[in-house]
What does this fold into?
Amino acid sequence: MKEFWLWDVPAKEEQRAIANLFLRIFVGFVMLTHGFLKIVDFSTLSTNFFDPLGIGIVPSLILSIFAEVVCSFLLILGLLTRPAALILVVNMTVAAFLVHSETAFAQKELALMYWAIYIVITVIGGGRYSLDGVLFARKQLVKNTCKINMSPFDRIIRLYIAFVLWYFILAGIVHGAVAIILLILSIPLMVTSFWGYCHMYSMVGKKCKQK
It folds into this structure.
């Protein structure tokens, strides 16, 4: 037990699967409350809902309800987990970076918390205790072909840089086109950090190794 708490011993596969299940169910049910409230207040919101993408108030509201209700149900079931989580990432990106772009951090904090959780779920998927794991698991076909060409230090630094760029945006230090450019730059930093593979390294001949 002390190895687990003090020596950073990795959790067992079963523990990770249960933690994944808990995270999906918890965030799924919590987000459902937001979606159901939008359905109940649809007539009111259809006249004053945010339209940050310029597609119209009602379509924006419908897309938000789809993400918060349908995609949350999918997360709870663990069905099409990564696409559902990715849609919710986009939904929370719009909420945090567009709808609340000019507001205080406290007003966008909740959207950012959901955003971070959905990014994690997009990366780790549904796990063993999900319909994806039951219906689509193909462990016998997955040879250990995933490779990495980045050191742990490299991956950590990239993630920290991405966080710094987000801080500049969320704290209002940068605005407009500069904020958009920094947000775009942060995406490959975050993605390569999670996957451990940088295509630019392979172009200069850096060797890969098995995960």
Summary: Residues 13-40 form the longest helix (28 residues). The chain is about 70% helix and 0% strand. Confidence is low (pLDDT under 50) at residues 140-144. The longest strand covers residues 147-148.
